[in-house]
Design brief:
With 254 residues, the protein is of the alpha+beta class. The chain is 26% helix and 33% strand.
């Protein structure tokens, strides 16, 4: 059955009130079953959920196994909309947070790693790029350098013997000036290709934020200024790290 599952970009057909209803897979955020009634929640504030008598296993068989994961006996989510997780809940857009079963924790993390590896191998995923541009365009002319990098695993011949790369998905004007490169050259470029011989602390911070949802504020060595810069980093989405340079020269600030 798994080999026959549809791929993202297609749709499933459900019979609701004696009518066939087609639902694009990319619109499904998550689904929950209560008292044999399955509620499918779709992305968008004005989009009403779809309700149908269906078991969670039956719905799961209709969905691509590489893009959806079951997080409890009665709920499955789209990895496309996954933002982060803590010790008890999974977070989705719109401040949606759903409890998950501890027995599913390993399954969730494994599914995320596989999805992230496959999803981020695209050098410039248009949907991710457009989402970031729409959400963070307010930083375009912000006076402090600001960027977002994506943690991309599985690339070969990585520098510094690392198995992860960090790809610029958004930069503002101030960061382009700091990097001494036009923004169009930075977008979709590797951090390691833009900053020669960067200190390994940068990659460590990117990893902590993008995968572990840790907020980090620290001083990091800069090959651009020759001293250190103060950075504040956080995770806007799973596998992404947003980074703002709050002070560009430690010597001048001390």
């Amino acid at each position: 059955m798994a080999g026959n599952r549809k791929a993202i970009g297609e749709q499933i057909t459900l019979r609701i009130n004696r009518k066939e209803t087609q639902i694009p897979l990319e619109n499904i955020m998550y689904a929950q079953v209560t008292d044999k009634l399955c509620t499918i929640y779709l992305y968008g504030e004005d989009t009403p959920p779809v309700r149908i008598f269906l078991t969670i296993n039956a719905l799961k068989e209709m969905l691509p196994e590489d893009s959806f994961v079951q997080i409890s006996r009665s709920c499955l989510i789209s990895l496309h909309y996954f933002q982060k997780m803590n010790d008890s809940e999974v977070f989705l857009p719109g401040d949606v947070h759903i409890p998950y079963s501890r027995t599913h924790r390993t399954e969730i993390r494994n599914a995320l790693q596989k999805y992230m590896a496959a999803y981020t191998m695209e050098p410039a995923n248009p949907e991710v790029r457009d989402r970031l541009l729409n959400e963070f365009h307010g930083f375009d002319h912000f006076p402090l350098p600001f960027c977002i990098v994506e943690n991309v695993p599985g690339r070969k011949n990585m520098p510094h013997n690392r198995d992860h790369d960090y790809i610029f998905r958004y930069v503002n004007d101030a960061f382009a000036s700091f990097a001494n490169a036009p923004a169009y050259q930075l977008i979709n470029a590797s951090f390691f290709s833009i900053f020669e011989n960067p200190d390994s602390q940068w990659a460590d911070v990117f990893s902590q934020c993008s995968l572990k949802n840790q907020q980090v504020s620290c001083w990091l060595p800069s090959t651009r200024t020759g001293t250190e810069v103060r950075v504040f980093c956080y995770q806007p989405y799973f596998s992404f790290c947003a980074c703002m340079l709050t002070e560009l020269d430690r010597e001048q600030s001390s």
